[in-house]
Amino acid sequence: MWKVRQKGRIFAALTDGCPKHLSGKIQATMKRILIVDDESDLREILACNLETAGYATSEAASAEEAMVMLRKCLVSDNTSEVETLPVLILLDVMMPGINGFQMAEILRNDWKLRVPIIFLTAKDHEEDILTGFARGGDDYVTKPFSVKELVARVNAVVRRMENAEESREKVKALPQLLDLGGGLLIDDSRKLVVVDGEDVVLSRKELGILRTLVAQPGHVFAREDILAAVWQGEAYVLDRTVDVHIARLRKKLGTHGDRISSRQGYGYKFD
């Protein structure tokens, strides 16, 4: 049992069975998580549990060190396992120097880097949580936390990002002019749909949602999956935003609007 004092709070995590240090060859084949926290004991606990869950890990004691590591990833030829971009960043907020919120803002706005971020912090006020999402966070975990719950959240975010990437690849494979039958066509070159012979202009998000849905007809997309695929890590967006855009899209599709159906408690699909 590890016991760690973090900014005046007690953390505990079972470390039985944790791999000590994975070899470079093994880590190169695993999804990598970057842990950024100024508390070395907490980094060790997180690395231990994440490696047990099947991830490779890298650690940084500050935002400055983490950004140096990420910069090397961006300029490398990806031939070295230590220079592979992480699939997710666990980012402490309250660090000396550049704090977690500031680092996230730099990555999102200046570097245009869309690697998912989960904030770790003792700051649990609603304003702090909203700030975290506004700075580009994909999740926000307050300390003290259950390590098992954190690993589950990591799994969920990584899975969502992988599904979004798969969806985008399928969208890219769609032809520029796609006949959906019954008088409905998508003309991606002109960024519009043709509804019963009439051109109907769609917003970028509306077209993105439609192309995402039609790329996998019959597949039910959760709202968060649509957000990940179409909004791609933009500043905090509520699930309700998807509902609003789909309502507008259905209206623009006229008699074809009901081809986008909802499954209560699940999401949306196109038939």
Could you explain the architecture of this structure?
There is one protein chain. This protein has 271 residues and is an alpha/beta fold. Helices cover 41% and strands 21% of the residues. The chain is built from nine helices and 13 strands. The protein has a five-stranded parallel beta sheet, sandwiched between helices. Helix 6 packs across helix 8 and helix 8 packs across helix 9. The longest helix has 26 residues. The N terminus is likely disordered.
Widest sheet, order of strands: 4-3-5-6-7
Please bin the fraction of helical residues: 40-55%
In the predicted model, the low-confidence regions spanning at least 5 consecutive residues are: 1-16
DSSP strand tally? 13
- Major sheet summary line: 5 strands, parallel
C-alpha Rg, in Å?
21 Å
Strand content: 15-25%
Termini separation comes to: 53 Å
Query: Total helix count?
Result: 9
Question: What is the N-to-C succession of helices and strands?
Answer: EEHEHEHEHEHEHEEEEHHHEE
Question: Structural class of the helices, strands and pairings?
Answer: alpha/beta
Q: Can you tell me the overall shape? A: elongated
Please state the average pLDDT score.
86
